[in-house]
Every structure is written in C-alpha cells, then in structure tokens.
Write a structure and sequence with these properties.
Elements: H1 7-13, E1 22-28, H2 35-50, E2 54-60, H3 67-73, E3 81-85, H4 92-105, E4 110-113, H5 123-134, E5 140-146, H6 153-167, E6 169-170, E7 179-182, H7 183-190, H8 206-217, E8 222-229, H9 237-240, H10 242-258, H11 260-265, E9 271-272, E10 275-276, H12 291-312, H13 315-320, H14 322-327, H15 332-345, H16 352-374, H17 379-395, H18 397-406
Parallel strand pairs: 1-2, 1-4, 2-3, 5-8, 6-9, 8-10
Antiparallel strand pairs: 4-7, 5-7
Helix pairs in contact: 2-5, 4-7, 6-10, 6-17, 8-10, 10-16, 12-16, 15-16, 15-18
Length: 408
C-alpha cells in the first residue's frame, strides 16, 4: 500500500519521541501570514494542558511562500515539531492522510487537527479536542463554533441537514476543519482502500468523509468541542466556493451510497451530541455577501446547465427549480427535494460531473434565498432558520427513500 509520507519524512519521524499524548497536525498551503500564530497556540495548549507531552506536525502542499520556514522557526520550547510535504493528489485530504500516518508512526494517543488560517484558535482548543479521547469517552471530536450567519453555507444548507437526517446525530459542524481523532480512528482511516485517496476525499471532501466514517464506524461516541468563534479567511459563497462545494458534496453523496444500509434502516429520534466545554459569548467578524451577484450567477449558470437537467430529471423536478430560473432563488423544501434527487442520481458514475455542475447554481439560489430572508436577523434568529431547515430535512426522509428506490 502506498503512503502519503516520503521516505525522508518517515526517517525524520522515527527520530521523534513515541507514545506522546497529543500530536497537533496543521495542513497548509501558502499560509505564511497565519501559520505562526496557530503553531504558538498549539504549543501553549500542549504545554499548559498536557505537560509538554506532544509534538506539532505540518504537512504542506508545496507552498511557494515561506510557510514551512515560518513553521519551523516558530518557538515551541522543548516540544518537537516537523514540517514536510506530502505525497499524492494535491489537496487537504492528502495532507491529513500524511498527518494521520505520521501520528500512527509516533504511536500518539490522540491527533488534533487545526486549520492553518485560523485567527481565533486558543490553547484550550487543544484540550477540548483531545481530552474526551484521552479520557476514553469519545473516538472523534468535531468543533462547535459560533460563526457568522453567512459563513459556512455548505455546512448550513447541505452537510448539516443531511448529516442529521441520515445518521440521526446532531453534529453542527461536520466539515468544520478542526477535529480530535483517536488512535483507533486513525488506524481505521489509513487502512481504508487505496482508491479512496484517489477521489475528492484527497481534497476538500476529507472533512465530511472523516465525520461520516466516524458516525458509522466509531467504537466510542463522538462529541463536539465548544471552541468559540471560527475566525479565518472567510469567502463570499457566490465568488469563491464552487470547487469546494463540488468536492464536499460529491463526497457526501458518495458516502450516502456507501452507508445506505445504515441510514435507510435508521428510524431513531435525533440524538444530541454532547458539547464539551462552555459555549462562550463571542463577537463575530462581519461578512458581506453580494446578494445580487449570487442571484445573477445562479440564473446564468442554471441556463448553462438547463439542457442537462431536462435530460436527466423527471417533470416533477422541473417544478422545483422553476424559481431558480426566474429569480435566482429557491425555497427550502424545494431545495431539499432536489438535493435528494441529485444524491440518488449520483450513483450513476457517468453523470457525476454533470450533476455537481448543475447543482451549483441551485445551491447559489438557496444561499441567496437564505441571505434575503435573514439579512435583518441577528445570529440567533438566523440560526433558527438553519435549524428549521434541518428539521424539515428529517421530516422528508421518507421522501428521500422513495426517490432513492425510484432511481435504483
């Protein structure tokens, strides 16, 4: 089986202490302006909460700036650190694969993963993401953030409602980026078939893949860590999130097929996932979304994809996307119904690229509708709208099953 680690990296890892409590892994690509702060917070977290029993790893995607140099020059006292470049497809998933393999070599009890563009990370994040695993009460920890109402639109409008509906666990940030992973889950991830790492899992699909595998296969429960604000390099969803959307959603749909025997049989009530720590009051940075651009891009891209949609979807679906074509917006129930139809058809590998490209303008329309509905709402009011959409998704699960069987 191939490895995401180069031979020289494995040799360097073999010189580091084994059996540490915590490895903090930081994937990066051209993050010279932010990576030092993340390293400093990781160092303080290991020192303060784990008596220095840890190390810090950086897996870089071939940055042309000084990311790796800055990482190695950041002071971490006696806590060892190592920066290396990974092997495999370029992307966050390949970086995390290499970090997990490195943590396995180091025989670490817990791996904490932190994004390299974070400006809100604090030392206690390391403790919250690691402590339940070291205490033996959880296998996998997802973040629980306070985020701007327009940050995390892929999470809010597809990953969160579908994860709740499919796997009956209320995981608010299934693709949050900052995770705690047990040694047993690391072993499970790195032993997955080689072909997994040749898909979008090697890119931005990694977060939803890891969370879904944990929900379906972890021996111990999962938990959430109250990390406060998620402040990072946020992006206007209408201008920057197309590729990420394709990779995340494609992986989500693939995992629906992999675990269909689980979610089709799962009729239990929604289970709250425990939140570790106290949810703090935080001040969120402003995020401006260009609503007119979202609606315009939705209509323009929809027209480009209309022939594909008419070819592969039945007339009932066309009634759902009518508002997209006319106004660049779509109601929540129509959006969810179309997501179900796209997910069902995604099992046809020949249609996959076309399906994802065709869903993007409908996603833009859904975000535009949410922005228009919530632009005068505060955080809590907008969050209530997100929760209502998740409840609606659960109420429509029978509808999903019927669509799924119809497109076998």
């Amino acid at each position: 089986m191939s490895s995401a680690l180069r031979t020289e990296t494995i040799k360097a890892l073999e010189q580091l202490p084994k059996g540490t409590d915590v490895v903090v892994g930081i994937p990066s690509y051209e993050n010279e302006s932010t990576v030092a702060f993340v390293v400093q917070q990781a160092y303080q977290g290991i020192e303060q909460y784990f008596g220095g029993r840890g190390c810090i790893l950086n897996s870089d995607g071939g940055s042309q700036d000084s990311t790796q140099k800055v990482f190695m020059e950041t002071e971490t006292g006696d806590i060892p650190k190592l920066s290396f470049e990974y092997e495999g497809l370029p992307g966050k998933g390949s970086a995390l694969r290499s970090i997990m393999e490195a943590a396995h070599i180091l025989e670490s009890r817990c791996l904490v993963l932190l994004d390299s563009d974070l400006r809100s990370v604090r030392p206690h994040w390391v403790d919250l993401l690691a402590r339940p695993i070291l205490d033996g009460t959880a296998s996998y920890i997802t973040p629980f953030y306070q985020r701007h109402k327009y940050d995390g639109t892929i999470t809010n409008h597809i990953c969160y409602p579908l994860t709740c509906m499919l796997y009956n666990r209320k995981v608010r940030q299934p693709i949050g980026g900052d995770f705690g992973v047990s040694a047993s889950m690391i072993e499970r991830y790195i032993q997955k078939p080689e072909v997994v790492w040749e898909t979008d899992v090697a890119r931005f699909g990694i977060d939803i893949w890891m969370t879904t595998v944990a929900l379906c296969e972890a021996e111990l429960p999962i938990a959430q860590a109250a990390l406060g604000a998620k402040i990072h390099d946020v992006k206007d969803p209408g201008k920057h999130l197309g590729p990420m959307f394709s990779q995340v959603v494609g992986t989500l749909f693939t995992m629906m097929e992999v675990y269909q025997s689980i979610w089709k049989a799962n009729e239990d009530a929604l289970e709250d996932v425990p939140i570790m720590g106290t949810i703090p009051e935080v001040e969120l940075e402003p995020l401006v979304v260009d609503l007119d651009n979202l609606r315009s891009r939705s209509r323009t891209l929809f027209r480009q994809q209309k022939d594909f949609l008419l070819t592969h979807f039945d007339p009932a679906a066309s009634q759902r996307w009518k508002s997209v074509e006319e106004s660049g917006m779509i109601a929540s129930a129509d959006w969810l119904d179309l997501v179900f139809r796209f997910a069902s058809l995604y099992r046809n590998h020949e249609l996959r690229d076309g399906l994802i490209q065709s869903l993007v303008p409908i996603y833009y329309a859904r975000v535009a509708s949410f922005v228009e509905q919530t632009q005068d709402m505060d955080h809590d009011q907008a969050e209530a709208v997100v929760e209502e959409q998740a409840r609606r998704a659960r109420s429509m699960k029978k509808q999903l099953k019927e669509i799924w069987e119809m497109n076998c």
